[in-house]
Amino acid sequence: MSGRFGWWEDLRTDHADLRAALAAASRRTRDVDEDVGVVPPLSLPQSDLLPVTAAMGVPVGGPYLRSHARGWEVAPGRTLDARHFLGRLHELTDIVAEVMPGAERLMVHVSGPWTFGASVEYHGHPLCFDRPAFRDVALSLGEGVREFCDAVGASVVHVHERRLGEVVSRLQGATEFETMQVDREVAVNVERRFLDQIRGDGARSVVLDSGVGWPEVVHTGADAFVVDELTDGVAGMIDAGSQVAWRVGDDRTSEEIAHSVIRTWRQWTFDSAVPEPQIDLVAVGDGVLTPTAAAELARTVRGAAALLHSN
Hints:
- The protein is an alpha/beta fold.
- It has a domain at 5-46 and 239-311.
- Helix content is 43%, strand content 21%.
- The protein has an eight-stranded parallel beta sheet with strand order 1-14-13-12-11-8-5-2.
- The longest helix is centred in the middle third of the chain and has 22 residues, at 131-152.
- The chain is globular and about 55 Å long.
- The two termini are 23 Å apart.
- InterPro entries: UROD/MetE-like_sf.
- This is Methionine synthase.
């Protein structure tokens, strides 16, 4: 277990440059008065997760991407899109080394292998339809993410795997007649291999954000799981020893978020002795936020985490 995180951000802002975006994220997360009981992860500035994750894999043989009318596709060689995102990663690495050397609990956000494979096209079809190509790309992405995290000193990775449920139930290809379905055990094994890769020597914590509530998801080996709702299934995950974080937006106040967690917690029954409350919070932004909107959302979720800590 990685221990508690308290809260963290999952959002994008419209800052003009990475240095300003990182400084603003630090002000929202670290330069604050609220006490949430732990040092929360500081999320590095986000961009489009698919090309950013691909760019992390390029140095170790990963795919070059190019944009097209339907989104992103694997390109046969270097592209202007890939060059842009590679440049962005190099710039971010330099800025972190300059202004945040040795900073505690830096968090990197990446796309998971199934979401990447379902969202990026390869020869006109989702990449994961081609099993050998998907396997090779997934391995490259895992290695590339680990190397990037090593370079910036990130100790936490938030893996966005929101299309996992679709891959296991029914993923549609280029036409409505082209579909695929992956066995849950296979999907979990691929995910576990990816998480093991990016964990490195074991000191790095990995958070899985899949949007699914199957019991099997805990076998991915993630240190924490992001959930959409506080269901009885989540109570079972906590009872079994898993750390859980709840996605919250800007539609509630700090008090409403904290009261909802406490009320739900007291309704649950645990087989083991579990102190209360043991739920972290994730501030989820809708689209690209202005700096003011990001600050307001962070203040709300940070305040709720502080209330839970002091309860």
